[in-house]
Amino acid sequence: MVLFWAAATTVQAAGGGTGMGPSAIEVAPGAGALVLAVRTGPLPAGAELVLETSGGRRIGSVSPFGATAATSSAVQTHLVPVPAGTLPEGRIEIRAKLVLHGSERAATAHEFLGAAIIGH
C-alpha cells in the first residue's frame, strides 16, 4: 500500500538550470526498514539518481540498467530499500541529484517526480 506520493517542487538549481526542491515523506515513530517507491521520468543512459536527506545523508540511489530516455516509458517507479535507523522519525525532506560521467547536478523536474513510502 502506498501511503502517499510527495511530488517535489521545481526550483532554480545551482548553475542556473531548473532542478528539484525537496520531496517530503513522513516516517512513522518506531518504523523499521522502509521501502521507497521513487518515480522518475526517463533518465540519461548511464545516469544514477542519488537520494539524500536535506542534511546530505545518502538514502539510496536509482540506476536503471538498460533503460534510457529513448527506450523507456515516460514514468518509471523504482523501489529503494532503506535500512532501519537510516531515517529519523517525522517529516523528512528528500533531495535528488543526477550523477553522470563523474559529474553531478540537481535532478530536473522531468527526472525526479517524487517518492512515497510503501506500507508495511
UniProtKB/TrEMBL annotation:
Domain of life, per lineage: Bacteria
Name of the molecule in the record: Uncharacterized protein
